[in-house]
# Entry
Amino acid sequence: MRLLIVEDEPPVARRLERLLRAVADAEITSVTVCATLDAARTALDRGGVDVVFLDLNLNGRDGFDLLRDVAADAFHTVVVSAHTERALEAFEIGVLDFVGKPF
# Structure
């Protein structure tokens, strides 16, 4: 499984990667961490991503913009955000799951 973590806070990105590896290390073949939407778009354009773990507030930009700009059918998305009031919106967009912060 090839993972992309889109998170602008390095400690949170590291913690999320540690938790994912603790749960599914044998299935994980790669983890890419991007701190900006532009970097995440570039990573997705290269292909080879199975699951995106997406923060919604990325330096003041809306993480949902990433899903609106790319073909989300090629990968699953799990939103990881403190903005739990946006969970319904996330599911309407078609994300796989929503994990509230702190996790």
The chain has a mean pLDDT of 92. Helices lie at 10-24, 37-46, 64-69, 87-93. The CA atoms of residues 1 and 28 lie 5 Å apart. The chain is about 35% helix and 25% strand.
